[in-house]
Amino acid sequence: MATALAAAALAVPAQAHHRASGSDLPAVTPRAETPVLHDDDAGGNADADDPAIWRNAAAPGRSLVIATAKEGGLRVYDLEARPVQSIAAPPAVGEDDAPGRFNNVDLVHGLRLSSGRADLAVTSDRGHDRLRFYRIDRDRVGGPLTDVTDAAAPPVFSRDQAEINDQRTAYGLATWTDPASGKSFALVSRRERTSITLLELLPTATGTVTYRTVRTLDLPSSFRLPDGTSWSPCAEPDELPQVEGMVVDPANGTLYAGQEDIGIWRLRADLTGTPKLIDKVREYGVPGVYDEETEECTPGADPGYGGTKISADVEGLTLLTESDGDGYLLASSQGDNTFAAYDRELEDANEYEGGFRVAPVNSTLDGSEECDGAAVLNAPLGDRYPNGLLVVQDGHDAPGDGDRPATDFKFVDLGTVMDALDG
Description:
Elements: H1 2-9, E1 27-28, E2 32-33, E3 37-38, E4 51-54, E5 64-68, E6 74-77, E7 83-87, E8 102-113, E9 116-125, E10 130-136, E11 145-147, H2 161-166, E12 170-177, E13 184-190, E14 195-203, E15 209-218, E16 223-224, E17 230-231, E18 243-249, E19 254-259, E20 263-268, E21 276-280, E22 288-291, E23 296-299, E24 314-321, E25 327-333, E26 338-343, E27 352-358, E28 374-377, E29 389-394, E30 406-413, H3 414-422
Parallel strand pairs: 1-27
Antiparallel strand pairs: 2-30, 3-30, 4-5, 5-6, 6-7, 8-9, 9-10, 10-11, 12-13, 13-14, 14-15, 16-17, 18-19, 19-20, 20-21, 22-23, 24-25, 25-26, 26-27, 28-29, 29-30
């Protein structure tokens, strides 16, 4: 399978190589930011990663942003970016086992539970190699999220606790409801591997949610370049180019998956058919040598086979939908701190439509750097965001706090993003 997919990747023509600067793109600025998280003992090892936006249909101005904080669990914010609820990641099974670590989050709307239909937040728990499910009730006393994960939910990829502790576990996440069958699914990628697995979400008679594996697909880990040589991105020994950012277009069941050091794939959300590489990172094809002492790669000469719009890692895929079927696939280009926009419509071959960067407002409200996760919602959200909302992770919050790792989430008025892309 991997050989056929690698060949399919060659269908993408080599592009003229140009390392455009992020400063060439229009800038948008955030309207608010969440309180900073610190990935250290004092901060509870909390590290902002991936957001999702839940719209309160009855009162859009009381909508929520639900976000992962890795070992810090889940955070819930209101539209003022103020904390509403904090949920701890589950503890380690044993003293020497990995603790819970929430990597990505997405939403499922109207899943039929034994207690009635409900909206759910779904997270990938990398620490335990499982999915976790939280029912959303905006007005519930004690906080809007309630854990409804079935206690018997199995590991996604691992056979036993020893494999779980190796942490080649559930990583990236996207949800999808098939309109034909009404069934809901999660697509989950595997850390340090190229695998994506399709899980069917299964409500239980007791009101909890579990899942079963439908099928798994492996993307390529090596590629044949136009000069006939074979190339794999430089990495630690036995580490393959992983996928994290993923999103499904609900209109046609198309999955977009960001293979961090390779580019963006388009494939069917049911994981059948042949994936197509719709864009490559600039670093595609660049050789490298891994230094075990520094744990870093030293790049060689650039042969010019990469793309021109995104720089590794490609992260944070999210879909900006419009009522007429148009819209954009947005991708975080982590290597140059920008965001790329691709046409949502398949008949337009997901062509590049432009990009932008999230820039600082002032010395205390900064922009977004090395963005891991992003979420967009093109719908009115009360007086605060009547044009919709874009939420992006900031990997280096400023002004920060000395040498402490500092991350948070930025809230951007979607109207300013649309103006930047339309300009």
